[in-house]
Design goal:
One of its GO terms (molecular function) is iron ion binding. It contains five helices and ten strands. It is an alpha+beta fold.
């Protein structure tokens, strides 16, 4: 080996022994670049999002249920008066044990308020059943100043005066019904609900209804 070659070899060995080692960060970067997949993280995330979205159902919104108003309970009334004896020859009276009517408390409160404002304890609600309407029968509801000869009079047991007047023929078609007073956006009114003699829910207007087939008149 020549002297020039020997000097070059010693210079290379000397420079290699004094070269600083690679930094840890550079080493990890080199290792990561050698073993990392060809796609970047920015490309992987959208792909994962698409896969997760594909596994979701079409709709994740909660199931909504139709709102149902709470049922209004009726309170029993007392039969405070019956048709006059002279009317018995003209009409068929309802037996006392069947002459029943339910009245909600808010209906009784409204009747009492009306009677108090008019300073007349005999003012009450008159209900009559007429033939007609889209289902065969319909209710006619109005205020009355007092009892007529063929009326049954029902009164609330606690709130007084709160009277309901029903003639004998109409009572045959609506005995055991529930009288309510409802307040809505379009207005407030008395109404007849849960008539045991009515078939189904009746007309959507809430006035006309159909008589059950097994009701004997």
């Amino acid at each position: 080996m020549s002297s020039s070659t020997t000097r070059l070899l010693h210079r290379f060995i000397h420079s290699s022994s004094h070269r600083p080692p690679l930094q840890g960060v550079q080493t990890r970067s080199l290792s990561s670049s050698l073993h990392a997949p060809s796609c970047s993280r920015s490309a992987v995330l959208p792909l994962l999002t698409q896969l997760r979205s594909a596994q979701r159902p079409f709709s994740t919104s909660p199931v909504t249920r139709a709102y149902r108003a709470p049922k209004v309970e009726g309170e029993p009334t007392v039969l405070s008066a019956k048709p006059s004896p002279e009317t018995e020859d003209d009409i068929d009276l309802v037996p006392d044990e069947q002459a029943k009517l339910l009245l909600t408390r808010r209906a009784a409160e409204q009747l009492k308020t009306i009677a108090d404002k008019q300073h007349n304890p005999d003012v009450g609600l008159r209900i009559r059943v007429d033939s007609g309407g889209c289902h065969g029968y319909q209710y006619a509801i109005e205020l009355a100043k007092g009892k007529q000869a063929d009326d049954y009079v029902f009164s609330h047991t606690e709130l007084k005066p709160a009277n309901v007047y029903i003639d004998a023929v109409s009572l045959t078609l609506m005995k055991g019904s529930l009288i309510d007073y409802a307040t809505e956006l379009i207005g407030s009114s008395f109404r007849v609900n849960e008539n045991p003699q009515a078939k189904g829910a009746g007309c959507g207007c809430g006035v006309s209804w159909e008589l059950k087939d097994d009701v004997v008149l």
